[in-house]
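Backbone-to-sequence.
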């Protein structure tokens, strides 16, 4: 099974960008959920 590294080179920046977006959006979403739960209590 031979891996074509050109595919990995093309997909790596896209995966990094997606991960960074999920990290940033996830942090904001977590803060929003915590604020909502604190307001309910």
């Amino acid at each position: 099974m031979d891996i074509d590294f050109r595919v990995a080179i093309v997909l790596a920046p896209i995966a990094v960008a997606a991960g960074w977006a999920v990290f940033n959006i996830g942090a904001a979403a977590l803060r929003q959920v915590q604020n909502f739960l604190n307001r309910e209590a």
